[in-house]
Amino acid sequence: MRVLRGDPGSWEAPETGTSLTIGVYDGVHRGHAHVIGRAVEVAGDRIPGVLTFDRHPLTSSAPDHAPRLLTRLDQKLEQLEALGVGVVGLLSFDDRLRRLSPEDFAADIVAGAMGAKSVVVGRDFRFGFERAGDVDLLIRMGPELG
Fold first, then answer.
1. DSSP string, 39-100
2. CA-CA distance, 18 to 141, in Å (whole number)?
3. Is it the case that residue 35 has pLDDT exceeding 80?
4. HSE (CB half, 13 Å, CA atoms) of 89?
5. Which residues, including other chains, have CB under 8 Å from residue 28's CB and lie 6 or more apart?
6. What is the dotted CATH code of the domain comprising 2-145?
7. For residue 56, what pLDDT is reported?
8. What are the extents of the domains in the chain?
9. How far apart are the first and last CA of the chain?
10. Which residues pair with 91 in a beta bridge?
11. Which candidate among 87, 110, 120, 145 keeps its CA 20 to 30 Å from the CA of 24?
12. For residue range 44-95, what is the model confidence (pLDDT) as tens digits?
């Protein structure tokens, strides 16, 4: 499994594109495994991918509210690989990422850095600045992002 770290602008997306899921994925439980499994299942000739964080986002934005992690990063990566994930993008939740608009997150990171051709997330998935992006935005942006 390939692990991408550092600035997403320097990542090389897989040439075939990815079937991507996005989330914190701490303590990869059955619900997480189902979503990840669906991304693996629909991948076809694409690489199953996960976009996640090197630590919980609240550790940077609201440390007093950050939950205690259930798994260490190395354990999470092992669990993802065991589920068939071929590439993981590890984001560091910093101020620049926190302020990224949903549109820029989708274009620059999801489609750009990760090369997503399909995205599998839960219906309540939120992303981008102030969690303003949702599944409907991904669906609307899909055709222009490829």
1. HHHT-TTSEEEEEEESS-THHHH-GGGPPPPSS-HHHHHHHHHHTT--EEEEE---HHHHT-
2. 16
3. yes
4. 30
5. 36, 71, 76, 79, 80, 83
6. 3.40.50.620
7. 78
8. 2-145
9. 24
10. 53
11. 145
12. 999 999 999 998 777 777 778 777 878 999 999 999 999 999 999 999 989 8
Instruction: Please name the amino acid found at residue 63.
Output: P
118 DSSP β-pair partners = 19
- Token pair in block for residue 26: 């701490």
Write down the pLDDT at residue 57.
76
**Nearest residue to 52 via CA among 82, 30, 27:** 27
Whether 134 contacts 125, CB under 8 Å? yes
